[in-house]
Amino acid sequence: MAMQPSAELDELGACTLPDTGRERDACLEINPDGFFIRHPPSPPLLSEFITAEDQLFQTIHMGAAVVDAGKWMLVVDGLVRRPFALSLPQLLRLPRKSVTAFHECYGSPLKPPTEAVWRIGNVTWTGVPLAHILSMACPLPEARYVWSEGLDRGSFFGVEADRYQKDLPLDTANSPEVLVAFEMNGEPLTKERGAPVRLVVPGWFGTNMTKWLCRLTLEDRRAAGPYTTTFYNEIDPADPSGKRKRPVWKAEVNSMIVRPTPDEVLSDHDVGVRGWAWCHEPVVEVQVTLDQGITWLPAEVETRVDVSWQMWRAELHLPAGSYTLMAQAKSSSGAEQPLTGRRNHVHTVQFQVI
After folding, report:
1. Looking at the structure, do residues 59 and 147 belong to the same domain, yes or no?
2. For the segment 212-242, what is each residue's pLDDT rounded down to a tens digit?
3. Which domain holds residue 258?
4. 129 & 20 share domain
5. Rounded Cα–Cα distance for residues 191 and 214 (Å)
6. Which CATH number do you get for residue 269?
7. Which pLDDT tens digit goes with each residue over 245-261?
8. How many Cβ atoms are within 10 Å of 143's Cβ, its own excluded?
9. Alpha helices for 246-310 (secondary structure H)
10. Which residues are in the Oxidoreductase molybdopterin-binding domain (predicted)?
């Protein structure tokens, strides 16, 4: 029989809420300070199913928090019957699971979403299901969103914030794959990845995965900080007026070509085409074209593991000549990659067969 939430809190020795803001004492400094981005390698170098740490992009908005793990705590409060705080040892005693998922950066929130930047990788996260932690707090019926706060602070493109704050709809927060994570690819999180603990929301853009996590607050409305209002909102492509905005939440269907490589010269007329496809929901179809979309050829798509990216492949027999290869993915709901005009537009690679 499963342990009741209140009994689990008692067994852990979870404390009642500390003084307001005390959880932020765990941040010793912000170092280095300010915005930082490390771009991923080019698509041909992302050939492995699991992306190594040194090949995974990094995006840090206001600087990296240096955290004293001994002082760290996770506060859970808001519209709950039993608010509480957990230390790191207490968190590590809770049930854990691992989820393999693609990890994608939306790109700059200051530019129109028209560039397919392919800031993407695929990793295995390990942590405590967020739903388990929320159940321990016994959410009230009026709770609709989970606000998450990180220990980082500072300025991002002229906008000051005393904390990084995002929100999730409660139904998403209760999805079994959403984690309060402390490991990536079997290793403890590094400082730059949000150590000691970060939020992981597989299938959603990385901006929603609060690093240096210290507080979860259940509310009946969306958070009002700059990272939900000023930044990370986009024009809804479903709005014919082109005015309505939507939050940058779920990752749209996307793909990239790994083989052939750009400008590669091949002597073999049997050409193996390879790539990755991903989306917040499974990708069920990938097609390739060599004539700018006049004719399409089907590719084989591997079954998704957890919320991972999916390998696709096609075998082409081509005469000598120059080629422009495009790949287009389709998700289980029927959404297709656009050919142009969006950040997830189709990837194109030129190559030659001699």
Report:
1. yes
2. 999 999 999 999 999 999 999 988 878 888 7
3. 254-353
4. yes
5. 14
6. 2.60.40.650
7. 899 999 999 999 999 99
8. 19
9. none
10. 62-225
